[in-house]
Amino acid sequence: RGPCSALNTLANLGYLPRSGVARPDQLVTAVMEALNLGNDFAKFLVYQAFLMNGNPLTNLMSIEMKTPLTVQDPPKPALVGGPSQHGSFEADTSMSCVDAFFGDPAAFNGIRFD
């Protein structure tokens, strides 16, 4: 689904919708229950990510790339793309993929992995 293995795991285990699209309150509940985070810290993390990549018109956020499941986009300059949108909220920390600047960030790179 997306670049964050923790959020993917939460979706795989049913804490989040398997589609990878959730409301902020669902994300807060999921990280509190599954990762044992406190309410204040969970809200801080979720709403920081939601402000960067969520859709305030539909109150939905994707844990992956931009998807039609979040429905219509808000007006510019807002960006809706999920945490894997290049240039908004990301980290070059993958052990198996390259950064979008260097090529396809979703393709497995065996040389990098080894």
UniProtKB/TrEMBL annotation:
Its cofactor is heme b. PANTHER family: HEME HALOPEROXIDASE FAMILY PROFILE DOMAIN-CONTAINING PROTEIN, STERIGMATOCYSTIN BIOSYNTHESIS PEROXIDASE STCC-RELATED. InterPro entries: Chloroperoxidase (IPR000028), Chloroperoxidase-like_sf (IPR036851). This is Heme haloperoxidase family profile domain-containing protein. Residues 1-114 form the Heme haloperoxidase family profile domain. It comes from Sphaerobolus stellatus (strain SS14). Gene3D superfamilies: Chloroperoxidase-like. One of its GO terms (molecular function) is peroxidase activity. Keywords: Heme, Iron, Metal-binding, Oxidoreductase, Peroxidase. Belongs to the chloroperoxidase family.
